[in-house]
TrEMBL record:
<protein>
    <submittedName>
        <fullName>Thiolase family protein</fullName>
    </submittedName>
</protein>
<dbReference type="GO" id="GO:0003988">
    <property type="term" value="F:acetyl-CoA C-acyltransferase activity"/>
</dbReference>
<feature type="domain" description="Thiolase C-terminal">
    <location>
        <begin position="255"/>
        <end position="377"/>
    </location>
</feature>
<dbReference type="InterPro" id="IPR055140">
    <property type="entry name" value="Thiolase_C_2"/>
</dbReference>
<dbReference type="InterPro" id="IPR016039">
    <property type="entry name" value="Thiolase-like"/>
</dbReference>
<dbReference type="InterPro" id="IPR002155">
    <property type="entry name" value="Thiolase"/>
</dbReference>
<dbReference type="Pfam" id="PF22691">
    <property type="entry name" value="Thiolase_C_1"/>
</dbReference>
Amino acid sequence: MTEVCIIGAGIHRFGRTDGVSGLQQGVFAVRQALADAGVDWRDIGIAFGGSSAAGNADIMVSELGLTGVPFINVANGCATGGSALYGAFTAIKSGEAELALAVGFDKHPRGSFDPKPSDWGLPDWYGEVGLMLTTQFFALKLRRYMEVHGISARTLGLVAEKAFENGARAEHSWRKTPTDLETILNAPMVNDPLTKFMFCSPAEGGVALVLASAKKARELGATGVRLLTATVRTRPPGSFEVFSPSLDLERGPSPTQIASAAAFESAGVGPGDIDVAQLQDTESGAEIMHMAENGFCADGAQEAWLHEGRTKIGGALPVNTDGGCLACGEPIGASGLRQVYENVIQLRGAAGARQVAGARTAYSHVYGAPGLSAVTILQR
């Protein structure tokens, strides 16, 4: 099968950009990625893109050029970007195209996400009791995890403190002000045990990546980062996921666990080979749970990892080096691709003040409702 590289990366800064539509932010990122790759829009053989609240991605051809390119719209919750990348990866891997584009963008209104039960195959009562409020679901799931595995509220605060510290070093982040642990812990409670600084916010932004076969990359003289694998998996029986109306007595693995295992097997590497990781951190507890679900530590070991600074830049496994969702916010269509963009920058050695020294292998994981995960592994 064909080896795949990422040869171009572009990003429109995250946060709030008044007067610029989500689509325009996506187009900005595409043009930046094309320029970075040294190719033209007419060279792209296939494109995959998605947005949750800012329109269909394929309409950006009106801005980029009417080339007749196959352009597939992707919608997979917060894993939309990761799923778009999976499409582009498989297209090159199969020989369908030599150059492919993955793009995601969004522009969410201010305020919390407002999902409707019927859109997720759920009865009205699920919303009436408050479980469509994702902050409540995350808090309930996290509280159970903390009790079972001995995770303290202080550890949740350390995740957020690290996020804002890293975000202050990232050009594309939204939150650029470091926030100390005591301020985070003593902030207004949103859903126990999560304070307001422990949640990400709906946001705006766009990311695009240009993928190429290794053969095409050599022809172009491009210095690419190898995309060893991309996987997407949905929830198996017994998993406990967002918008779950019940919890099975017989527990099963999570979609993250099976996506991660498939990715490591496909790439021929293991958790110990990863130098830098971007993990879904919709809230502080998500990063903690995903550390274990992705195979980087045992359940409960996160307490020691965070208190010893192992996930900080300079630690054993830096996690969310650009501040993750907590510092960047979450434009749903772009979020999963932002993680991969950050890893590309890290492997190029171009991350500046947040650079992980000697990084050679990078991992990203994004999770989306109602229970699916996408994982990628890059190597230079």
